[in-house]
Amino acid sequence: MSLVGSIGIQLPGFDLDAEIEVAPGELLAILGPNGAGKTTLLRSISGLAPLDRGRLVVDGVVIDDPGTDVFVAIEQRPVGMVFQSYLLFDHLTAIENVAFGLRARGMNKAAARTTGAEWLERVGLGEFAAARPAELSGGQAQRVALARALATEPRVLLLDEPLAALDVQTRRDVRRDLREHLASFDGMRVLVTHDPVDAYALADRVAILDGGRIVQTGTIAEVTAHPRSRYVAELVGTNLVLGTVEGGTLVTDAGAHVVVADAPAGRAFAVIRPQAVVLSRNHASVRTDGGASSARNTWHGTVRDIDVLGDRARVEVAGVLPLIAEITVAAVEALGLRPGDDVHATVKATDIDTYPA
Pick from 47, 44, 40: which is nearest to 13 by CA? Predict the structure, then answer.
């Protein structure tokens, strides 16, 4: 029993082609940049965006297969969804909002209200049953939306950026509450988020969606330890380089040469930690590490931006091998670095991790 999907949707200027599988009791977090197709993927599972190709199966039952003309209507799918903006009905009370999905599935009004009241109690909002959305805080509205989605006893729960509309403090509290409420749900859960903290706190596995394709799956630790896309590398604050290794040197598609240690021949990723990058004004000048270096890699570049964080600074260097270097603010001042300045970036081969692409 599981959610298994081969999801193909063609939109103007965009093509979603993704394979997913979620086991009962598992939460899969979908991360990716804006425009990657994350919300479209959720909409396809809910039935809001019918497939153009592929197949969706929940617990062995096909709910969408354009090849065999199978399409289960939204209200008949065993799917609940919490939207980013919650989409509560302004003219309905909290209990009426929770009961709405039950009524849409044919439950009589009295029974739907009874179940709605039970769910409001479960999410700690029993005393707000008569409140309308405008009278609720962001965190309370999020819990009403969650209760509405769970009240129908779905097998699949979809969460589209459920914490995005909350302030930092409320987000932390609601994240904790959400983890608690989801612990009792034994169905399949799919969470879309931009925040790796949400994924780390809530997800069993993550899938990285980029350009309409799943490019990497695994635990958050596995994905961040060996990023396979620039998006993940930026997410964890490291430099990711793709190229071909031959004779101990990785050559990028742009022609940059990176000397690496103990890397087999073939296509490979190289991870260069920003803290391992040493900057200098010229090849022979004072360096950010205070002296001479045994580094076998040196690239010329231009300072594009400097972002100061406390006593550290992240320096973006543009060139044949674009890099982010993390150095001290004191080093920035000693080198007199400003955007537009020419610099040399050096890295030891032994400080570069490689793995097959």
Answer: 40
